[in-house]
Specification:
The structure holds 2 protein chains of 2 kinds. Chain A contains 8 helices and 4 strands, in the order αααββαααββαα. By secondary structure, chain A is mainly alpha-helical. In chain A, helix 2 packs across helix 7 and helix 6 (about 145-155) packs antiparallel against helix 7. Chain B is built from 16 helices and 2 strands. The chains are: A mainly alpha, B mainly alpha. At the A-B interface, helix 1 and helix 8 of A face helix 4, helix 5, helix 7, helix 8 and helix 10 of B.
Chain lengths: ~260, ~425
């Protein structure tokens, strides 16, 4: 009986999806299309922005959001040397074990470890955030329409709500978040972080830096991809040209 | 055995016992191709190339992928981040699915335009429709494997279609799932089948090519070849021509892989599957959109499913629906117009499939669906009787009748060498 009920429920869900609903109200607003250094055929990440973005993530976002797909060793891509990566990892503590005595033990993180998530599990994360789950940020720039443009627009998109809208406690009004009511407070405040390179930490600067950083965490092989692509495409164009010449010669005898 | 005499003694020894070299020579060296085929005829070879690339890249992905609901998403990300050139292999495979459908859809519409499904190529065409069905099943199950949100919810929608089967529908769905919801057993069997089906496709492609080489290729004039003056040997003429077409096609593929790898995908599939959160819009991959639009055109589940499968079933019986004996649309002034209307209809269905099923889109979807079936079920049988085709040229190399289509007059203007 339970099986039947589940199947019927699932079928109803399937049907509901199939024939749509007024879901478009929850669609986000199209964010402005910004210029990014990693765009285009020759795009490479702005290393300064990446390092500052890492700082914003670590000092602000990481209080609630995990980065579970990125390992500390990956930070070498940001222009850090091995010692710096090692020192950065050592700031975190990870659970390891069991050791020879059968005990679990805490140790300083190594470059091979992944970023440590702020909460041990989803329930803990929700309990600490008024029921909302702060999503893991590793893939955020690929998991949202408009990617880094959306991240920037959302982070800087906290505006006053329309007069007729009452924002429930624990929620905030955001111009770009789908549905507009977001559980995350506006976290980027002027000089919220003291940038190691001395850049003035305006909210816009921080949003841009962290969006660049998240574009990298989502697609760390972007530079390798574009550089390989250039060679592959150039080769294929030359190859196609040669093939065309040979084809003409071969077919000359048939015409 | 009238086997070919080869110079190399080893080749000769093998060939007299197992004539694979004779066969290769016969099918891919001497095989006569109509000399007037255009580049649309290269899409069969292109589809073959894509199939092989998909199988090879897929095998390498399978070496690193974990078909378990707890690990599948992360294992794909491991491929992207930690496996050497894993990002390249995955993006090639991911975009390869789209490229496969682009190639095959062009291949199919070429067949529709030039009447390649008509006598004596009916069986060849039907095997092709089977390949299309197999491809759709394979692509659908492959899309489930990364276990993202669209994977999970796409699988939910599609498997639930079978619950529309009268009486045993729900049992069929439970049987497909291997449980009472989409879960680990579902993912496991989809992985097993996604690995198996490409080899079934390969077998079907072999039959497709075998059937083709019995009756020979069609050509833009749609008339039979009359002798060696109408044909060129496959090698070197078609090998170089198909080769060039393949390189250009791979160029387009590479442009996607390296510069817009996620353009054809959906951002939601970078969110791990969550059975408790339904995405705002569940959209299938672009190549399923016309069928998705047909599915949603009927406000009844069973009706929608029947129409969706019917959209492919009409292709299966197309050789008997089209009553005209003239193959090429070049000589069918009315069919030519209706062919392009069908193309527009299919594109419209694809667009509607991507839109939310509300308001004007429902209406457009229904009109386009009705037209699609009208084209195959009513128009084609009547058109063969009503239409007055233009006179056909006597042969490919000597189009003696003037005004027989654009290429025919072009061929007249360009003197042909006769041997």
């Amino acid at each position: 009986m339970r099986a039947l009920k589940t199947a019927v429920l699932a079928a109803a869900v399937g049907l509901g999806l199939g024939f749509g609903s007024a879901a478009s109200a929850a669609e986000g607003v199209v964010p402005p299309d910004l210029q990014w250094e990693h765009e285009g055929l020759f795009g490479t990440f702005d290393r300064g922005a990446l390092q500052r973005g890492l700082q914003v993530y670590t000092e602000v976002c990481a209080a609630c959001h995990g980065m579970s797909l990125v390992a500390f060793r990956n930070l070498a891509d940001l222009g850090f040397n091995e010692d710096e990566v090692r020192a950065f990892a050592a700031r975190y503590e990870v659970m390891d074990g069991p050791n020879d005595a059968g005990e679990m033990f805490a140790r300083a993180a190594l470059p091979a470890d992944r970023f440590v998530s702020p909460f041990p599990n989803e329930q803990a994360a929700r309990a600490a955030n008024g029921g909302a789950l702060p999503p893991d940020l590793s893939l955020m720039a690929k998991a949202r329409p408009y990617g880094e443009n959306y991240i920037y627009a959302m982070l800087t998109g906290y505006i006053d709500p329309p007069a007729d809208l009452e924002v429930p406690p624990g929620q905030y009004y955001n111009a770009y978040f789908p549905g507009h009511l977001i559980g995350m407070p506006p976290v980027l405040q002027p000089d919220g972080v003291a940038y190691a390179d001395g850049t003035t930490a305006s909210p816009e600067r921080m949003a841009r830096d962290v969006a660049t950083f998240l574009a990298w965490t989502a697609e760390p092989m972007l530079e390798e991809r574009k550089q390989t692509g250039l060679k592959v495409i150039l080769f294929l164009i030359v190859f196609a040209g040669l093939m065309y010449g040979v084809k003409r010669r071969v077919w000359a005898s048939a015409h | 055995m009238a086997a070919q005499q080869f110079k190399n003694p080893v080749v000769r020894w093998i060939d007299s016992r197992l004539p694979i070299f004779s066969m290769m020579n016969h099918e891919y060296n001497e095989y006569p191709m109509p000399r007037n085929v255009n580049y649309l005829w290269s899409f069969g070879a292109i589809a073959m190339l894509v199939l092989i690339v998909m199988i090879v890249s897929g095998i390498f992905l399978a070496m690193h992928y974990t078909p378990h609901t707890d690990y599948a998403f992360e294992s794909v990300e491991r491929i992207m981040r930690d496996v050497n050139f894993g990002w390249l292999i995955r993006y090639v495979h991911m975009n390869g699915a789209s490229m496969f459908f682009i190639a095959v859809y062009i291949h199919i519409f070429r067949g529709l335009y030039y009447g390649s499904y008509k006598q004596p190529r009916e069986l060849l065409w039907m095997i092709g429709v089977v390949i299309l069905l197999l491809m759709m099943a394979t692509a659908f199950m492959g899309y489930v494997l990364p276990w993202g949100q669209m994977s999970f919810w796409g699988a939910t929608v599609i498997t639930n279609l079978f619950s529309a089967v009268p009486l045993v529908g729900d049992e069929i769905v439970v049987w497909l799932w291997g449980g009472f919801s989409i879960d680990n057993p579902t993912l496991n069997r989809f992985f097993a089948l996604h690995y198996l089906l490409p080899f079934v496709i390969l077998g079907a492609v072999f039959l497709h090519v075998a059937a083709l080489h019995v009756v020979g290729s069609n050509n833009p004039l749609g008339i039979d070849t009359k002798g060696p003056q109408d044909t060129v040997p496959f090698n070197p003429f078609m090998t170089i021509k198909d080769g060039l077409a393949m390189v250009v096609f791979v160029l387009v593929w590479a442009a996607f892989v390296f510069y817009a790898p996620n353009y054809l995908g959906h951002p939601d599939n970078y969110i791990p599957a969550n059975p408790l959160v339904t995405p705002a819009h569940i959209v299938p991959e672009w190549y399923f959109l016309p069928f998705y639009a047909i599915l949603r055109a009927v406000p009844d589940k069973l009706g929608g499913v029947v129409l969706m499968f019917g959209a492919i079933a009409v292709l299966f019986v197309l050789p008997w629906l089209d009553t005209s004996r003239v193959r090429s649309a070049r000589f069918r002034p009315l069919y030519k117009i209706f062919f392009w209307l069908l193309v527009i209809c299919s594109l419209t269905l694809g667009y509607v499939g991507a839109m939310p099923a509300e308001g004007i889109w429902v209406v457009i979807g229904r009109i386009a669906t009705a037209y699609y079936f009208f084209h195959f079920l009513i128009l084609l049988p009547l058109l063969g009787k009503l239409e007055r085709p233009r006179p056909l040229p006597a042969s490919i190399s000597q189009p003696v009748l003037r005004g027989g289509g654009r290429l025919a007059s072009g061929t007249v203007a360009k003197p042909m060498e006769k041997s």
